[in-house]
Write a structure and sequence with these properties.
Elements lengths: L1 H42 L1 H8 L5 H17 L1 H14 L2 H19 L5 H4 L2 H17 L2 H12 L5 H29 L2 H6 L4 H17 L6 H7 L8 H8 L1 H31 L5 H29 L1 H23 L4 H29 L5 H17 L2 H12 L6 H14 L9
Length: 432
């Protein structure tokens, strides 16, 4: 009898351990793939500007390219409403599975697009259309994966588990950076300009198939299933969210200022900054970026770990204060043009942003009640990303152009940090 009980307990623990690994792996792979799909456009901003827009001047082409980068974010709130409703009503698993399908197809098609020289004005129109579809798809992915992870996590490890959502997003950025760096090393500049840029987009379909397969074996978190059992057939999560939880939406948007602006300056814009303003070769700029994305990833896991030990607010507050104090001096150091200095400055930014970004998932999930969590987090996070995140490279480029000050993007980081820091006084409730 005792041995039977021990065997049963062992099997239960083993099953739980297997399920935990599947949850982590599926969310990481799916999230990494979607961020890979979404950010490789950023690494080809200069190339897209030259290939898909009229040849007015170089800066105008870059601004136009960053404008289309922004267009992908403007579609995210709509995607968040659709996937949020599915996630709260039908299940977290279904929403996450559908988001991979919705991202895979437009990303592959971007690699097949004809250029402005081939079809004229139709080329940027098609590019905008596909970026919009990408934005719609990612509207439920990052928030969905953080919810799925934190809801499955043991109470004392929500910070660590949630940080894997942020970690996997950076893994997607690293994968994109490494592949683009490798192609720039293997191919001539002419080959990359003519056809090499298409390869990363077409390759994404293979990873998407793997992500779809792994997610098919998942089960929804128990905390969600318990909340779902209490829903009525007429329950509309978005309606309840807007009636009863508008203040929480505001808190998340305010907290997410630094997520939106900081992530895209540190992970995306700096690689183009090194190339455009400091005149480094594309492959060197991407190599620096790839190394520091690894630093970023490690700092994310550190942030999640710290948040379980010293609390969410403290772990979020310290990076905010560090950006306020050091963002401008660090940007000034970049103007030296020294490669070692560039490496160190971006690494410093990566550590500060990583600790903050690693704490965000558990914090956001704990703000919103379970029954409207997917709708609430997706809408609030993607509104912040649409308004501020997607526009960050465009705004940073415009600041430099209008002020003739290469350190001016630091003002965006300082303002975002101050707003995120102020949001911490409103974070009080936990619903898990």
């Amino acid at each position: 009898m005792i041995s039977t009980s021990i065997n049963a307990t062992t099997r239960t623990l083993a099953d739980g351990h297997t399920q935990s690994k599947q949850v982590l792996l599926s969310c990481m792979i799916g999230n990494a793939l979607e961020w890979y799909d979404f950010v490789i456009y950023g690494y080809f901003a200069v190339t897209f500007g030259a290939l898909f827009f009229p040849h007015v001047n170089h800066l105008s082409q870059i601004l136009a390219s960053w404008g289309i980068f922004w267009a992908g974010f403007l579609a995210r709130p709509l995607g968040s409403i659709v996937f949020g409703h599915i996630g709260d009503r039908s299940g977290r698993k279904l929403a996450l599975t559908l988001s991979i399908y919705a991202m895979a197809i437009p990303t592959m098609l971007m690699g097949c697009l004809p250029t402005y020289a081939q079809i004229g004005i139709l080329a940027p129109i098609l590019l905008v259309t596909l970026r919009t579809l990408q934005g719609f798809a990612i509207g439920g992915e990052f928030t969905g994966s953080m919810i799925f992870l934190v809801e499955h996590a043991p109470e004392t490890k929500r910070g660590v588990w949630g940080s894997w959502a942020s970690f996997s997003a950076v893994m997607g950025v690293i994968a994109g950076s490494m592949i683009v760096t490798g192609l720039n090393t293997a191919l001539s500049s002419e080959a990359m300009h003519n056809w090499g840029w298409r390869i990363p987009f077409i390759l994404s379909i293979f990873g998407s198939v793997v992500g779809m397969y792994i997610r098919s074996y998942l089960t929804d978190p128990k905390v969600f299933l318990a909340a779902k059992s209490k829903q009525t057939k007429k329950s509309v999560p978005l309606k309840e969210l807007l009636h009863h939880h508008k203040s929480k939406i505001g808190t998340i948007i305010l907290l997410d200022f630094l997520t939106a602006i900081g992530f895209f300056i540190v992970a995306i814009f700096l690689a183009t900054y090194f190339r455009t303003y400091l005149h480094f070769e594309h492959k060197i700029a991407l190599s620096i970026n790839t190394f520091n994305m690894c630093v970023f990833a490690v700092a994310i896991l550190l942030g999640g770990w710290l948040s379980d030990r010293i609390g969410r607010k403290a772990t979020l507050g310290y990076p905010c204060m560090a950006f306020i104090l050091f963002a401008y001096p660090l940007f000034q150091l970049l103007e030296t043009g020294d490669m070692v200095t560039l490496l160190g400055v971006q690494a410093a930014f990566a550590v500060m942003m990583g600790v903050f970004f690693g704490t965000i998932p558990a914090t956001l999930v704990e703000i919103m009640p379970t029954n409207v969590r997917f709708s609430g987090l997706s809408l609030a996070h993607n509104l912040s990303m649409a308004i501020f995140g997607g526009g960050t490279p465009f705004l940073a480029t415009h600041l430099i152009q209008s002020s003739h000050n290469l350190a001016s993007p630091a003002y965006l980081l300082i303002a975002a940090s101050a707003l995120s820091l102020s949001s911490l006084i409103f974070i009080k409730n936990k619903y898990l």
